[in-house]
Amino acid sequence: MSLRYPLVCFDLDGTLVDDTIYIWKTLHEGFATDPDARKRAHDDFASGRITYERWFAHDLALLAAAGATKPRIETLLDKLRPMRGAREVLASLRAAGHKIAIISGSLDIVIDRLFPDFAFDHVLVNRIRFARGGRIAGGEHTPYDLERKADGLKELCRREGLSAAQAAFVGDNVNDVWVARAAGLAIAFNCKSEELRKTCAVEVKGRDLRAVLRHLAG
Fold it and tell me: What is the pLDDT of residues 7-53, one digit of tens each?
């Protein structure tokens, strides 16, 4: 039997990962970076004065200046947990034949730390480079965050030879609105945004990801 949604895409922070809303906020607070500098960079991006790439580089520089290294970041991430049922959901989808992707403005180190044994078919996230000793040495920003998440979903559909109507997306916050509009099925999980709630065809309340499976099955 063919799958109605052969491609299932997930947001990361607050969806596959519990105990954080945005990993950037968790890291900045954990390393006590300058909140005024963070706000200025956010406002500069929101107003179009700087690009997403510059915002990404600025935030990495703040973290590096505050002493963030790979081992220290991993120690902070060890306080987080996969969302309840996340591993079971990923295993069930894989067994059923779905391709599984992450489209997120989060960081690759979060996936590596919390899902080390699961091979996602596609991962569209920001990436950090580390030098010897774990020092932050730059990174690669994702072109698929915020409104560009929809472009990310369309790109993955192109790679898989699918239409957007054959892709499902599961997310939790306002930065998922654009991709939710593009997906064939959009599920608001543990939702923190009224706009996303209104955009999605399905809302799953609570924090057990296993509740999304019956919707993805058909």
Answer: 999 999 999 999 999 999 999 999 999 999 999 999 999 999 999 99
Stated pTM of the model: 0.96
Residue carrying structure tokens 């935030």 = 59
Q: Look at the alpha carbons of 47, 52, 57, 61 in this order and tell me if their dihedral is positive or negative.
A: positive
The model's pLDDT over 171-194, given as tens digits with 9 standing for 90+, comes to: 999 999 999 999 999 999 999 999
> Of all helices (H) and strands (E), which one includes residue 179?
helix 177-182
Q: 10 - beta bridge partners?
A: 102, 170
**CA–CA separation, 30 and 214 (whole Å):** 37
Assigned CATH for 7-18+81-216? 3.40.50.1000
Locate 206 and state its tokens: 């609570």
| Distance from C-alpha of 215 to C-alpha of 163, rounded to nearest angstrom | 19
Beta bridge partners of 139: 128
Helical residues (DSSP H) of 23-171, grouped into ranges: 23-30, 35-46, 52-65, 70-77, 86-96, 108-114, 149-160
Asked if residue 39 lies in contact with residue 132, where contact means CB atoms within 8 angstroms, the answer is no
Domain limits, the chain: 7-18+81-216, 24-77
